[in-house]
Each structure stands twice: as C-alpha cells, then as structure tokens.
Prior knowledge:
37% of the residues lie in helices and 16% in strands. By secondary structure, the protein is an alpha/beta fold. It has a 7-stranded mixed β-sheet, sandwiched between helices. β3, α8 (120-129) and β4 (138-145) form a beta-alpha-beta unit. The longest helix has 14 residues, at 47-60. It starts with 8 loop residues before the first helix and ends in an 8-residue tail after the last helix. The model has no long low-confidence stretch (mean pLDDT 89).
Amino acid sequence: xxxxxxxxxxxxxxxxxxxxxxxxxxxxxxxxxxxxxxxxxxxxxxxxxxxxxxxxxxxxxxxxxxxxxxxxxxxxxxxxxxxxxxxxxxxxxxxxxxxxxxxxxxxxxxxxxxxxxxxxxxxxxxxxxxxxxxxxxxxxxxxxxxxxxxxxxxxxxxxxxxxxxxxxxxxxxxxxxxxxxxxxxxxxxxxxxxxxxxxxxxxxxxxxxxxxxxxxxxxxxxxxxxxxxxxxxx
Length: 234
C-alpha cells in the first residue's frame, strides 16, 4: 500500500469512499518488542490509532467503521497479558477514544460474546456510554469475537428462534457488508473476523503496526480501494 501525501486526502474524499471500512488491530506486541517494552504496555498504545481512524473516517464521510479489537482466541494468551486485555477501559475505551466517538456524534455498537465475566462490566460500560448519536457514522467494536462462533450461534437461533441461550451480540442486519478490510501489522489473513460480511470486501494489508497506524494510513487504504475494480464474481 502506498502512503499518500497529506495533500492528496481531499482527492480521496472527493472520489467517493466505501460505506463500510473494517480494521484488524494487529501488531501491538511486535511494536512493543521492537521498543523493548512488554506486550501489556504495547496494548496501552492502541488508543491514538483508534482516535485518528475515527476522526479520519468521519472526515471522509465513511458511514460505518468496525474495529476488530479483541479476538476470542486472544484470551488464551499468557495470564499477565490476558489480565491486561480484559481491562478494556485501560487500552480500548479510554477517555480519548470515547471523546472521539462523542465528537463524531457516532452511533456505537459492540459485537461479540458478552458473557465472559472478565469483560462484561467494561462492555456494559461502553454500551451504556455508547449512545445513539445524531451523526452519520456508526462505530462498532468487535470484542471477544469469533466469526465461526457467531455463525454457529446464528444457526442455532435459526433452528430454535425461541431459545434464550443466544451467546452473541451479532452484527446488525441493517449494517452493510464490509467494502474495505484493512489489516495493519504485516500479516495477510482474516483471523476469524466477520467471514460472512467480508464475502466481497477488498482487502488491503500494510506493514505498519497498529500503534503507528494513523488517519493518513486509513485514507491511503481508501485510495488503494478506489483503484480496484469490484466485480462481485460477475
């Protein structure tokens, strides 16, 4: 992915942008290792990237942006790292991130499994804070999320619509499919993220690690998207 010049942002905005952009927040631990700091401290460096992307998405008039913040499998890591990851208000929903959401007047959603007792209080905190704004952007966070588990949960619910055992807060039926999926961090895989919704998405990978990712990288990925010819299998 070519990083555009700051002066090119306006042209990107004027060419028309994808309705739904999703980001896999990857590379925190490698970012920390390169600086001689722990994985725990590296995760605490996520907020500036989130704030910058929310601000850039709002400026570009992207109507939906989704962040894959915490995979269900991330909770299988070391005890020390997991103890840090489950404190969502320390690294994910910081005051800076919530201020950015409020400034954007965004509608806030959280998807994933709510029932893990280690994270439920922080999820409920942001859901309650996650007001229905009057703006034109929806901001969604995927937390303790697995696409396979979500699909299985949907099949179970379809088989028995009266079941009260639904584990997942799933993606809104009204939310459009993902148009552009961005993965910072240098890896090129989906990692069990919204497999149904990325069926026709354009994928953009970049070596920039998540804590270094900023709005200009976001717009650069949109510029790459604009160069693609989307055929939807036709």
